[in-house]
Write a structure and sequence with these properties.
UDP-n-acetylglucosamine1-carboxyvinyl-transferase, Chain, about 25% strand, globular, Dihydrodipicolinate Reductase, domain 2, about 35% helix, four-stranded mixed beta sheet, 2 domains, 8 helices, alpha/beta
Amino acid sequence: MSKILIDGSKGEGGGQILRTSFSLAAITGQEIEIFNIRAKRAKPGLMRQHLTSISAVAEVCGGKLEADRVTFKPGAICGGPYHYSIGTAGSTTLVAQTLLPVLAAANESSVITLEGGTHNGMSPSLDYLEQAFLPVLTSIGLQASIERDRYGFYPAGGGKWQLKVTGAACIKTLALLEPPQDIRSVHTLSCRLPKHVPKRQADYAKQSRDWENAEHNEKWVDALCPGNVFSAVIGQPPLVAQFDSIAKLGVPAERVASKALKKANRFLHSGAAVDEHLADQLLLYMAIAGKGVFTTTTPSEHTKTNIAVIRQLTDKAIQLEQLDKLRWRCFL
């Protein structure tokens, strides 16, 4: 089998090209070489979280990794205990998402311990992973669970958690056409901040159209530095749409809440089953199953690039069809 060459600058040219390529290469046993890695980014090349992700995949399948243009020749996938530390506030959830489909294909179960960032604003949060992403995967046959030791907010990082993955998963066909149940809640997650911060966020939601009757869940956690996340949540497992907004120094609490609520309201008006971020993350599992369909909001460049990478590695052509102004159908 000849080596597959993948241009890391295609489409949106980000780290998802690396993660999808390595996951699929490990599962299919294909040798790949990636060049122009993250060429369109302000800081091109491999960041710590990207290097951790691909090194982890190479380890669990006994693969050979050459860092010149990033050549990867996978071997047999082995489950078991693994431990990866990014050493910064870089996203541990992106490392987990890269490993998850690979270890689900192993013949034995695995426990991955991850250290680094859990909520950094540039990737899915740990709570999103547990509350929105994993329930959908459970519904199609992948069994995984999360245990937390400590959260890791930007800029200190320092989070630590475990992902338990049951091996030998049989991924079933994905079919998500109807929107989540119209159950709305808001969640505040805070560490070492004044008590009025999450209260102001909850009060803002109560005064917002469509969210005045939403249930409020407040959680205080331990971390190496202060942090705050406001989440607007629609639905209940297995189908949940979650929109996170992570606080930044100097940004009013109300503005943090407003950002998440605006994203949630756009999704509510679309009538789609999954938001653009979850859509992007489900593409790989659709390809593994060989068939599937879901409705989503306007696809991002991230999603279109992911579809192109999946087609190059599997020859499976995932299609996008616009249904109306706000809703699209994604199918294979």
